[in-house]
Backbone:
C-alpha cells in the first residue's frame, strides 16, 4: 500500500514516528472531541444535582454559580494543557495526558487546600465574599465573581506547580511507554481527549463540586442532633423491650412457682402412703 495513502488513512504515524502530530489537538477532530467531552462533563454535573436530597437540593441559580466556577477553571486548565503539550519534544498527545492526570490528582489536592483555606479565612476575618458556595440572601453576583476569580487563581497555582513538576527528567521515560501500544493517531486522540478524561472527569467534577457547594453548619448540627436523638430512641426502645421481656419472664416463673407450691403437698402424701 502506498505510504501516502496509509498516512492519510491514519493507520500509522505521519511525522517523525510520533503517534500524533503537533496540530492533532487543535484540528477539526480534536476540537470535536473537546466539545463533546465538555458536554458530557456538564451533563454529569446536572445528574449530580438530581441525586441530591429533594429537601436540600440547590436551586438552579445556586447550582449554576457553583458549577460555572468549575467550568471556567477546567476550561483554563484544558487550554493551558493543549498549548503546553505542543511545547514539549515528542508526542503532544502523551504530554497532554500526563498533564491531565497530574491535574486530576496532585492538582485536586491543591484545589482542596486552597478552597478550605479561603473558607477558613472567610470565617475568621468575616470575608463572606470568599466563602465558596455562599452568595448571600438573595444571591449576590459580586460574591460569585469574587469566587470565580479566586478559583481561576487556584487553577493558575495548580498549572504552575504541575509545570514545574514536569521539568523532572524521569517524565521523558514515562512518555516513551505511555500509550505506546496505540499506533493510530485518531484512536490515540480519542483516548487522550475523550475516553480517559471522561471517566476521570466524572470523579473529579463530582468531588470538586462537593468542595465548592455550601454546607450550612447549622444544618450539619441539626442533622447530627437528629441522628443522636434517633440513636437514643433506639437504645430506649431496646431497653423497654428487654424490660418487658424480663417482666413477662418473671410472670411466667411466678406462675410456675405457684403451681409447684400447690402440687408439693399431694406429692408428699403420695410418698408417705
Residues:
Amino acid at each position: 500500500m502506498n505510504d501516502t495513502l496509509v498516512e492519510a488513512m491514519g493507520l500509522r504515524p505521519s511525522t517523525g514516528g510520533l503517534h500524533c502530530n503537533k496540530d492533532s489537538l487543535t484540528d477539526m477532530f480534536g476540537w470535536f472531541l473537546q466539545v463533546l467531552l465538555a458536554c458530557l462533563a456538564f451533563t454529569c454535573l446536572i445528574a449530580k444535582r438530581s441525586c441530591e436530597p429533594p429537601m436540600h437540593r440547590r436551586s438552579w441559580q445556586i447550582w449554576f454559580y457553583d458549577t460555572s466556577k468549575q467550568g471556567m477553571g477546567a476550561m483554563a486548565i484544558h487550554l493551558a494543557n493543549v498549548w503546553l503539550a505542543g511545547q514539549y519534544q515528542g508526542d503532544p498527545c502523551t504530554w497532554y495526558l500526563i498533564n491531565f492526570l497530574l491535574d486530576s490528582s496532585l492538582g485536586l489536592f491543591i484545589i482542596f487546600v486552597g478552597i478550605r483555606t479561603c473558607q477558613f479565612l472567610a470565617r475568621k476575618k468575616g470575608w463572606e465574599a470568599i466563602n465558596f458556595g455562599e452568595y448571600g440572601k438573595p444571591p449576590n453576583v459580586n460574591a460569585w465573581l469574587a469566587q470565580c476569580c479566586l478559583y481561576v487563581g487556584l487553577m493558575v497555582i495548580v498549572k504552575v506547580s504541575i509545570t514545574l513538576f514536569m521539568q523532572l527528567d524521569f517524565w521523558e521515560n514515562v512518555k516513551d511507554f505511555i500509550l505506546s501500544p496505540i499506533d493510530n493517531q485518531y484512536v490515540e486522540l480519542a483516548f487522550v481527549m475523550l475516553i480517559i478524561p471522561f471517566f476521570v472527569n466524572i470523579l473529579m467534577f463530582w468531588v470538586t463540586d462537593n468542595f465548592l457547594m455550601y454546607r450550612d453548619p447549622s444544618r450539619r448540627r441539626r442533622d447530627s442532633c437528629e441522628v443522636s436523638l434517633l440513636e437514643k430512641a433506639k437504645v430506649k426502645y431496646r431497653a423497654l423491650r428487654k424490660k418487658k421481656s424480663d417482666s413477662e419472664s418473671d410472670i411466667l416463673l411466678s406462675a410456675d412457682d405457684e403451681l409447684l407450691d400447690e402440687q408439693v403437698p399431694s406429692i408428699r402424701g403420695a410418698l408417705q402412703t
In short: Residues 1-17, 219-227 have pLDDT under 50 and may be disordered. The CA atoms of residues 66 and 213 lie 6 Å apart. The two ends are 121 Å apart (CA to CA). The longest helix spans residues 217-272.
